Amino acid sequence: MNIDNRIDNEILERVELHFTVDHPKEPTPSLRELIEMVNRMEPGSIKSQTYIMEVNSRFGRSSTTGVAHVYSNSEAAENTVPTYVKDRHVRRGAHSEPVEEEPVEEEPVEEESEDSEADEEGS
Hints:
Distance between the termini: 74 Å
CATH class: Alpha Beta
Strand content: 25-35%
CATH topology: Alpha-Beta Plaits
Largest sheet: 4 strands, antiparallel
Number of domains: 1
Strand order of the largest sheet: 1-2-4-3
């Protein structure tokens, strides 16, 4: 991830980041992945106070541009971020921790043999 432009917006208590992500031979990064990248690039940022406002991918290019807002406190984010952006982050699980699915172990199925059926009939 490259930060193309960083604007410190003191009035809205946020940092606005314009970024570019190169992802050769990979799909466009998810909101969660973009937030993690922004948090690595912006020291002191908190995942729950980071919002991806805009993402643009171009057909045939493995490059994505976007805008992220990193708020200094949760109250500033709550009062400023539009509801549709908050809803999008909730729907896509952008602020939640990734859930690792555990492999489901199938219980061995006991097959009844013909001998055991014959024993039951003979009793």
